[in-house]
Design a protein that fits this description.
The complex is a heterodimer.
Chain A: H1 7-24, H2 27-35, H3 42-50, H4 69-81, H5 88-102, H6 109-124, E1 129-132, E2 148-151, E3 155-166, E4 173-180, E5 189-196, E6 202-208, E7 214-226, H7 237-272, E8 274-275, E9 278-279, H8 284-309, H9 318-346, H10 357-369, H11 374-390
Parallel strand pairs in A: 1-4
Antiparallel strand pairs in A: 2-3, 3-7, 4-5, 6-7, 8-9
Helix pairs in contact in A: 1-4, 4-7, 5-6, 5-7, 7-8, 7-9, 7-10, 8-9, 9-10, 9-11
Chain B: H1 7-21, H2 24-32, H3 38-51, H4 69-81, H5 89-102, H6 105-117, E1 122-125, E2 141-145, E3 148-159, E4 166-172, E5 183-189, E6 195-200, E7 209-220, E8 224-225, H7 231-236, H8 240-245, H9 249-265, E9 267-268, E10 271-272, H10 277-305, H11 315-336, H12 345-349, H13 363-370, H14 380-391
Helix pairs in contact in B: 1-4, 4-9, 5-6, 9-10, 9-11, 10-11, 11-13, 11-14
Classes of the chains: A alpha+beta, B alpha+beta.
Chain lengths: ~400, ~400
């Protein structure tokens, strides 16, 4: 796929997202979302649905618009620029996983049944789901999976814990990844289940993050789920991986938007604030620091979009995984640098809660950690490099 | 990332050519990081010229292939990672295209064929002892005397002047006007009477650059490019391709491959460095930066392909590409550790007489040499100034 096809369509997406944020998501609107106990104002969520952005990442076979990760990133960047609190990235990519499971690969009647019920409601914003992929004690490593699904007569019984489920408060259901010991297979397979929020035995511990987002820890104490709530009859762990990458990369795009907004505020401030009889921006030492921020943001956008374009339909190819790991590592480093520089270049005003920059700062700081920081993703990247070094083509010339 | 469908096939063809044609002694020299001799360069030029690949980015009427920017960058990447000598950019990317654009018919007829054949080597006479980043303050003087300019003064940091047949040179032809307005662009035969070249030995041990002295050197007026006092604008019109190339993706990948090789070979506490957390972390961090640089560079290539202006923001590529090269060289030295210390001047130009392993004898010199990447061609500070002024509007 060429990244640069559909340029006009992409420009239109960006334009409409930017317009929405500028006209429909001002300070008071944002304040009401922040004040909402779920960190998600249902009125705003309906607006995102009406704009088609919730249907965008759902596959066409799953009743959506079949948008690419690249397109999701275009929206996410603008929402990040506008500091939209609603958990678009977390919930829209969870929906994408569910819709993808409905695609005929392989044909799967159970999944299709689930999708027929859920997907139209997700696209319309009438229901919202979140992906529970991480567990306590594993930080943001997706591999450990201590949550177990045991087969019962009519389905499965789930037991375990999930942590830092973004968008969980107020969600109607969760995609819970649990291990299933498949007969005949040596290890276990990781299986996604759709579990409704009111399922008996499911306990939700919600909390707010310091940037205003909301998340929750989940505890599953023998939660019974019907066989039809298993997403995909076959081993679709590769697809889980793929949509974890989607959420990570879309999160990067959102962070790029917030970085760009923070930078814009800082640049403007330095151009107007005077000390010693001249603007701060006329000092070369400060100009060069602004340039370094600018370059880091541009490279962040480039590496994020390149990762989005490397998306592969069936699971995560080494090239896609490598790009995704590099993107999140890079964006984490850039976001850390940008938020600190924005505070320092502002001076004391940059440390006040009432100044608008404060929201950006907290958001960027949290974005570094969410979905795994640079240290975690550099470890992943190094693993991909091991494979590269072993490849026979490496020294073929 | 390919946007042109034939790039993959092109890559395959390039790889085959290099495998079959690159002479083993040249490959060994480049791989070891030693200085490539003039004779080796000329042999490689002849092989490329025979294939039509020495100046493929030139227009067809001057012996080029009309390659796209993307093709040219693939060529750079493949040749770099396969240990081919790096072609002299001054000759093939700067003076060639400059003569195509600004040269007289006579200048083109005289110089373009030997450049395209790979037999004429050029150096660039820009910097002076008192005119580095502030190039416009240059003082080498050219006085018109009948059919000649008489050039007096000196140039410094002139790379490969010891190999060069010709120099393109910025000289002052009018001292009464604004500094930028009194500069002319002259072509000077390096064999002219009155020219002296003094090699400068670098901290790396090589003589890559030189000081060049002009003592009343007579230069025929037909060697003036463009009009008198118009030299500044010619010098500033770096071609688009040249600016895209400054990301130095190929050179960074070659260094990445070296670091990887050292990382798998060098042992610490019974494990290859590649398994040691400190090395792994640093290696992955540089790979990450390379992936970001390549992604950013791809956006500019795409702009160029679709005919959009590149813009001043392309300075980002030069800034980051040069910093990254230095970081790879640092990693190589740190990875070799004690093996990077033994030194021999002979090992910089010929077979190593040191007990240290392959790649080690030149590692420290390569690292010192790499400091020049952020100084030459517009220092990192100049790139920051350009971005601050022209992109951020400061």
């Amino acid at each position: 796929m060429s990244a640069f096809e559909n340029d006009e369509q992409h420009a239109h997406l960006v334009e409409s997202a930017r317009r929405y944020v500028e006209r429909g998501y001002g300070a008071s609107v944002r304040q009401s979302s922040l004040a909402h106990p779920d960190g998600c104002n249902p009125a705003r969520w309906t607006e995102l649905a009406e704009l088609g952005w919730l249907a965008l990442p759902l596959s066409e076979a799953g009743g959506g618009l079949g948008g690419s990760l690249f397109e999701v990133c275009l929206i996410a960047e603008e929402l990040g620029r506008g500091l939209v609190i609603e958990p678009y990235v977390a919930c829209a990519t969870a929906g994408a996983l569910l819709a993808d499971a409905a695609a005929p690969w392989p044909a799967d009647a159970a999944a299709e049944g689930q999708c027929a019920q859920w997907l139209p409601a997700l696209a319309a914003g009438a229901r919202r789901i979140a992906l529970a992929a991480w567990e306590p004690g594993a930080r943001f490593d997706r591999q450990p999976c201590a949550t177990v699904a045991t087969r019962t007569d009519g389905g499965y019984r789930l037991r375990g814990r999930k942590s830092m489920v973004l968008g969980a408060p107020g969600a109607n259901a969760f995609i819970i990844v649990a291990r299933v010991d498949e007969p005949g297979s040596t290890g276990f397979v990781r299986v996604p289940f759709l579990v409704e929020a009111n399922a008996p035995g499911l306990k939700l511990t919600p909390y707010a993050l310091y940037d205003g987002r909301h998340a929750a820890d989940l505890e599953l104490d023998d939660v019974s789920v019907g066989a039809g709530m298993r997403i995909g009859a076959a081993d679709i762990s590769a697809r889980i991986e793929r949509f974890c990458e989607w959420s990570t990369i879309a999160h990067c795009a959102e962070t790029v938007g917030t970085m760009a907004a923070s930078f814009g505020i800082t640049l403007e401030y330095l151009k107007t604030r005077k000390q010693f009889g001249r603007t701060l921006a006329s000092n070369q030492a400060l100009q060069h620091r602004l340039v370094d921020m600018y370059v880091a943001i541009e490279e962040s956008r480039a590496i994020t979009q390149a990762a989005a374009q490397a998306d592969t339909v069936r699971g995560v190819s080494p090239a896609f995984g490598r790009s995704a790991a590099a993107a999140k590592a890079y964006v984490s480093q850039a976001a850390r640098m940008v938020w600190k520089e924005c505070v320092q270049l502002h001076g004391a005003i940059g440390m006040t809660d009432e100044y608008v920059l404060g929201h950006h700062i907290r958001r960027l700081a949290a974005a570094v950690t969410l979905y795994g920081d640079d240290e975690l993703h550099l470890v992943r990247l190094a693993s991909y490099e091991d494979a590269l070094a072993m490849a026979p083509t490496e020294r073929s010339f | 990332m390919s946007h042109e469908p034939d790039l993959a096939a092109f890559r395959t063809e390039l790889r085959r050519f290099i495998r079959e044609q690159l002479p083993p002694d040249i490959k060994a020299t480049v791989r070891a990081g030693r200085q490539v001799s003039l004779a080796q360069f000329l042999r490689w030029h002849a092989l490329l010229a025979a294939q039509g690949w020495l100046v493929p980015h030139w227009p067809r009427e001057h012996g080029g292939q009309g390659w796209s920017v993307a093709q040219r960058l693939v060529f750079d990447e493949e040749t770099c990672t396969a240990d081919c000598p790096e072609l002299n950019s001054i000759t093939f990317d700067m003076i060639g295209p400059t003569l195509i654009r600004y040269g007289s018919r006579a200048q083109q007829a005289r110089h373009l064929p030997p450049i395209a054949a790979g037999t004429q080597w050029w150096c660039q006479g820009y910097s002076e002892p008192d005119a580095g980043s502030d190039l416009a303050s240059l003082r080498a003087r050219a006085r018109r005397q009948g059919g000649h300019y008489v050039v007096t003064g000196s140039k410094i940091w002139t790379s490969y002047a010891q190999y060069a047949d010709w120099m393109f040179c910025l000289v002052r032809t009018d001292g009464e006007v604004k500094p930028q307005e009194g500069i002319s662009f002259l072509l000077i035969d390096m064999r002219s009477p009155g020219i002296a070249v003094r090699p400068i030995v670098g901290i790396h041990g090589w003589s890559v650059f030189n000081e060049v002295f002009f003592d009343a050197v007579q230069v025929p007026v037909e060697n003036l490019v463009g009009a008198e006092n118009q030299g500044w604008s010619i010098a500033k019109s770096l071609l688009e391709f040249e600016r895209l190339k400054l990301a130095r993706i190929g050179e960074n990948k070659r260094r990445a491959a070296r670091a990887r090789e050292i990382g798998w070979r060098e042992i610490e506490n019974g494990e290859p460095l590649m398994r040691r957390p400190w090395f792994r972390r640093r290696y992955a961090d540089l790979q990450m930066r390379l992936i970001a640089l390549e992604a950013n560079s791809a956006r500019f290539i795409e702009r160029s392909r679709t005919g959009q202006p590149i813009g001043a923001e392309v300075s980002m590529l030069k800034l980051r590409g040069s910093q990254l090269i230095q970081a790879w060289e640092d990693l190589a030295v740190d990875a070799l550790g004690p093996a990077s210390l033994p030194y021999s001047g002979a090992a910089l130009v010929g077979d190593s007489d040191l007990p240290t392993p392959d790649l080690a004898p030149t590692a420290s010199s390569r690292r010192f040499l790499s400091r020049g990447f952020t100084i030459a061609g517009g220092s990192s500070e100049i790139q920051h100034n350009i971005l601050a002024k022209q992109v951020l509007g400061l």
